[in-house]
UniProtKB/TrEMBL annotation:
UniProt KW Nucleotide-binding keyword: yes
UniProt similarity note: Belongs to the class-I pyridine nucleotide-disulfide oxidoreductase family.
Keyword entries, A-Z: Disulfide bond, FAD, Flavoprotein, NAD, Nucleotide-binding, Oxidoreductase, Redox-active center
High-level lineage: Bacteria, Pseudomonadati, Pseudomonadota, Alphaproteobacteria, Sphingomonadales
Name of the featured protein: NADPH-glutathione reductase
Necessary cofactors: FAD
Amino acid sequence: MTDTTYDYNLFVIGAGSGGTRAARVSAAHGAKVAVAEEYRVGGTCVIRGCVPKKLLVYGAHFAEDLRDAKKFGWNVPEPCDFSWPTLRDNVLAEVDRLNGAYTQTLTSHGVEIINARAEVTGPHSLKLSDGREVTAETILIAVGAHPAVPDVPGKEHGITSNEAFHLDTVPKRMLIAGAGYIANEFAGIFHQFGAHVILMNRTQEILRGYDLQIRDRLLQISMMKGLEFRFDAQFEKIVKEADGCLTVHMHGHEPVTVDCVMFATGRVPNTHGLGLDTAGIELDEKGAVQVDEDSRSSCPSIYAVGDVTNRVQLTPVAIREGQAFADSKYGGKPCRVDYDCIPSAVFSHPPLAGVGLTESQAREKLGSVKVYSSDFRPMKNVLAGRQERALYKMVCDGETDRVVGIHMIGPDAPEILQSAAIAVKAGLTKAQFDATVALHPSMAEELVLLR
Ligand code: NDP
């Protein structure tokens, strides 16, 4: 596939989930590939997102598990110490290991890794921060996104999820702005580590897009655990006090003083200063690269995958986009990503997960809808004396009985939902769920016993 007109067949900007997959598979298909990464190979998911977050979630669960353990006969010393530096450093060491593994995978597939920032200078040309200029037949933009920080006086005193993994100590009092994925996940994590957490959101809704009853259940449980919420709250200013504390002034509520303010108010595509205008690439109003179903931008030789396109900001989606790009372009297997029925989860405490249409979406789209649910206290919670109840919902097409959505909150909901999502994707009916014998005793058995 060597083409002497250009330095490379493919030049990928960004070695995150989408870029790494595209680079590796394209090279395996025979393309001469380079990937430029200005920070660390692995990208948001591996370095400062899904992976370290999930490890913190595991760490946070021990707080409740150790408390519950007594009811199961274990003698747990009181007080039971938690060392944040130990967990933090172990998590960061695991991130280093994965960074090495991703780097190794790329190099073993013959991908040239360039540790520099790359900017587009035309449809087939780039300049690198190390001074080099290179050319490529095709360019793939896979630069991801970064946390959005509202333009509020004193915003420089706050942190984002990027910094949360590196904190010196667990803050005693923490205000998290936003009520989406990151806000709810980090609220759960730091609450379990002993912080007093306040979530502040500009509207009254948490986790927009998830099923209303499931979101309500998380809100109830979070409040029961001691998390505080400030709804319909808009920032006025953040003031750093003489003792280092931060006072957050907001419209509609009394000011609150905390030790740490974290912004979790969405993410912005990393297209600023990337030179995309030199190739005539169209962006949307949020700065995301506009692409067609083949991930091709408005410049025919430039493609984009992952969060920078702001389609679905999830790692497995970016990976599929990278794979589809590589197989279509260099593997002789034209294919496109199917965005229907993508399962997703929020690793809150407890976690929630969903696939397909929510009840309200189904009512709007289908008209006739049947909803089955199970509201139960998991066996483990009963013995532990824990009041938290799980809620599973199945949304079916009223005409055909086809399951169009499953939504759940409770222990291990993401683990259970992944399997259930296969059935929803396959278009199975409620009767086919019911025909499956329950696996007893489990929480997942509720899925075949729903009324
Ligand atoms: P989300 O879009 O999930 O949530 C953003 C929150 O911030 C919402 O509550 C929103 O309010 C609020 N908000 C948005 N803009 C402003 C603003 N200008 N001022 C004040 N509040 C604002 O974003 P996250 O940052 O939590 O996460 C980013 C993305 O990363 C997610 O969309 C998700 O795709 C991905 N992610 C996935 C995870 C997973 O799969 N488990 C985990 C973490 C992230 P409102 O709803 O009222 O607009």
